[in-house]
Design goal:
Helix content: under 10%
Distance between the termini: 29 Å
Low-confidence stretches: 1-33
Mean pLDDT: 90
Radius of gyration: 25 Å
Shape: globular
Structural class: mainly beta
């Protein structure tokens, strides 16, 4: 166990000592509120009674009170989602599986800015430029959401919403440390006034990764940690009561360690660590002509620079035999790399119109330009352009029924085609607190640049004597002539949401039944040794998901469960039959998954929490973990401070998902401390 001292802040914290642990259910006057509002599923602010589908809302307070130590683990709280690590200590999360390890079928946004990579539609959770302390809420739309957010929202969407700098004025310092060299440090400073507000924050994330890996039947040390530094600047400039300008910028840098035994190709003798150097800029103008008509114009640019190189040697047994005829008796050394630079430019115009109490309409335009450069993966540069038009109408002709109809038309140069993704829903409301939803949607996902147009080869650099003539030689890996088409999904949902009021408690329950048909799914191996991607799998999946919460004075209980029945079949060309195509898409599909959380206020300004997470039958492995946290927050007039101890107890001792994910001690300890003033 390691000890960390840090500090957490703002006068707001000192004033909220009586705030409930689940504030979305209770008003400031202590009265139970109307159903939780959803902000992003259709781009309209909607009650859960009127939103067209099931959406999980996780507040930043819940994340912090449960002692969650990194962003990706938040999604263990979402029914149907699986969280793990692959390759080394690289996090992965999926909804209903349908992926090997790359998370290509979920749209992820931070404050409306697309967060997945430009060339490979994957999410690097280690390098996400957002600190847990800055999160206001996370909304996860479970089910295809391409009608609102386009091609990558194939199975759902994740929207991470950060806290307004207006709410974080003051100084905050926080730190935590613990097992496996975990270290997190956070600090922020900001101010708020009539003309605007700002916040400057810094975060460090550090971990040693897993304790051991398996190679050749032996358990060896694993070089798979990370050390990330993240700086964010957020500001709001108020022009009037009807308009303001939001400005955001950030820089992220650091190292993600990769072990040569797992990630080094062609006889690596050094570790191919990844150095990150990323930044983003974002501006959003919010305007309104009245209380029933408002709009925003948003522009963002982000750049991601990845440097990864390693040294190979002909003395290593993994050195390719096909290259040895080029060499003499002297040992050969050279550097290889998987460097890549990616950038994304986005524009969006959105307009919202409220036509009385019965009709709401949101519509807009979007444009995105992705550029990428890599000597290894693309033998140069490439680009992709996407343009889209989206709209959603909410119509409530009577108090007991709401209809939603929306769609997204999008054109992309990846395939040169245009696509339309629709969604329609009927919500039947009864008793003011209960709704039954019927949802039908279709969505597509186009292949990303690396799937569709790779030119994968390694180039010798810094070649040793006497082999200087081999400098710049390209070693072909794969350069397939792909002509992949779009993946398609047709989804049907029947769901129920209701709130039950008791004298001193409130219980909310959401149950979702889904039936999805996915066709032309892209499957196959992506590696230097084997590349056989094709639209060759159809999947049928159905299941049930449950999310329930019970709120009493000083107590919050929350439970989730997901059941998934997934069947696949090969639909590719018979002469190109690939026996593992179906299995690859089920690597992260868990038949049973769920969570339970209990947050309890105690005397002496103490708060305790307990959580249980489980997922079963993912690559013949199971995940079961129980977390316990005890925190004490002391409030003074001008400052407040917090101390906490968290224990993570792994009930399943076998490695989760990969045999290399070895945690030696099934008890992991973490200490937190913070101050705010």
């Amino acid at each position: 166990m390691a000890i960390a001292i840090g500090f957490a802040s703002s006068q707001v914290w000192a004033d909220d000592k009586l705030a409930p642990v689940y504030p979305s259910l209770i008003t400031a006057d202590g009265e139970f509120a109307t159903p939780t509002e959803v902000l992003t599923t259709t781009r309209l602010r909607q009650s859960k009674l009127k939103v067209p589908g099931s959406t999980t809302v996780i507040t930043g307070d819940m994340i912090r009170q449960l002692g969650i130590m990194n962003l990706v683990e938040v999604f263990r709280l979402v029914p149907g989602m699986v969280v793990g690590e692959y390759g080394s200590n690289n996090p992965v999360t999926s909804y209903h599986g349908t992926s090997q390890y790359e998370q290509r079928r979920l749209q992820v946004q931070i404050d409306g800015r697309t967060a997945y990579r430009a060339s490979l539609a994957d999410v690097d959770w280690i390098a996400m430029p957002v600190a847990l302390e800055n999160i206001e809420r996370i909304e996860v739309s479970r089910g295809p959401n391409s009608a609102a957010y386009g091609i990558n929202a194939f199975l759902g969407s994740i929207n991470i919403i950060t806290r307004s700098p207006e709410d974080t004025a003051g100084v905050e310092l926080y730190g935590s440390a613990g097992s496996r060299d975990h270290l997190r440090a956070f600090s922020s400073v900001g101010d708020a006034g009539r003309d605007g507000s700002w916040r400057l924050s810094y975060e460090k994330r550090k971990s040693a990764g897993f304790d051991r890996q398996v190679d050749g039947g032996e358990r060896l040390p694993f070089h798979d940690g990370y050390d990330i530094n993240n700086v964010n600047l957020d500001g709001i400039v108020n022009f009037s009561n009807l308009s303001n300008l939001e400005l955001r910028a950030g820089v992220l840098g650091g190292v993600n360690e990769e072990d040569r035994l797992k990630s080094g190709n062609f006889g690596a003798i050094t570790n191919p660590d990844i150095e990150q150097d990323n930044y983003y800029l974002q501006a959003r103008f919010n305007g309104a002509t009245s209380s029933s008509h408002f709009y925003h114009l948003q522009a963002s640019f982000q750049n991601r620079k990845r440097q990864q190189s390693w040294t190979i040697s002909s003395a290593d047994e993994e050195f390719p035999e096909a290259l040895r005829p080029l060499l003499g008796e002297e040992v050969f050394f050279a550097d290889l790399n998987e460097d890549a630079t990616e950038s994304r430019l986005e524009f969006e115009l959105q307009d919202t119109l409220i036509l009385g109490s019965t009709l709401k309409l949101v519509s807009g335009l979007g444009y995105r330009e992705d550029r990428y450069e890599s000597e290894t993966f693309f033998n140069g540069t490439g680009h992709n352009y996407q343009s889209r038009i989206f709209a959603n109408a909410e119509y409530s002709p009577f108090e007991w029924v709401t209809f939603n109809a929306g769609g997204n038309w999008e054109k992309t140069t990846t395939t040169g085609e245009d696509y339309f993704s629709p969604r329609v829903a009927s919500n039947f409301i009864f008793g003011d607190d209960h709704v039954v939803r019927f949802v039908f949607s279709r969505a597509v996902r186009t292949p990303d640049a690396f799937e569709q147009d790779p030119d994968w080869s390694y180039t010798f650099r810094n070649v040793s004597e006497p082999y200087e003539s081999l400098e710049g030689l390209r070693i072909p890996a794969v350069s397939p002539n792909n002509d992949l088409s779009e993946e398609k999904i047709t989804s049907r949902e029947v769901s129920y949401f209701g709130q039950f009021h008791f004298e001193r408690a409130l219980m909310s329950v959401e149950v979702r039944y889904f039936n999805d048909y996915l066709r032309d799914m892209i499957s196959g191996f992506i590696s230097p040794d084997e590349w056989n991607l094709d639209n060759n799998v159809a999947l049928e999946q159905e299941g049930v998901e449950l999310e329930a919460a019970l709120q009493l004075s000083g107590t919050m209980l929350r439970a989730t469960y997901g059941y998934l029945d997934q069947e696949g079949r090969y639909t590719g060309a018979p002469d190109q039959f690939f026996s593992k195509a179906v299995d690859l898409l089920g690597r992260l599909s868990a038949q049973h998954s769920g969570s339970f959380a209990w947050i309890q206020e105690l005397p002496f300004q103490l708060t305790s929490s307990a959580a249980f997470y489980m997922a079963e039958e993912v690559r013949d492995t199971r995940f079961k973990r129980a977390d316990f946290r005890l925190a004490r927050k002391v409030d003074h007039q001008k400052y407040s401070y917090m101390l906490a101890l968290t224990l993570q107890h792994y009930l399943e001792r076998a490695p989760w998902i990969s045999p290399d994910n070895i945690i030696a001690d099934h008890n992991q300890y973490f200490i937190e401390a913070g101050i705010r003033f």
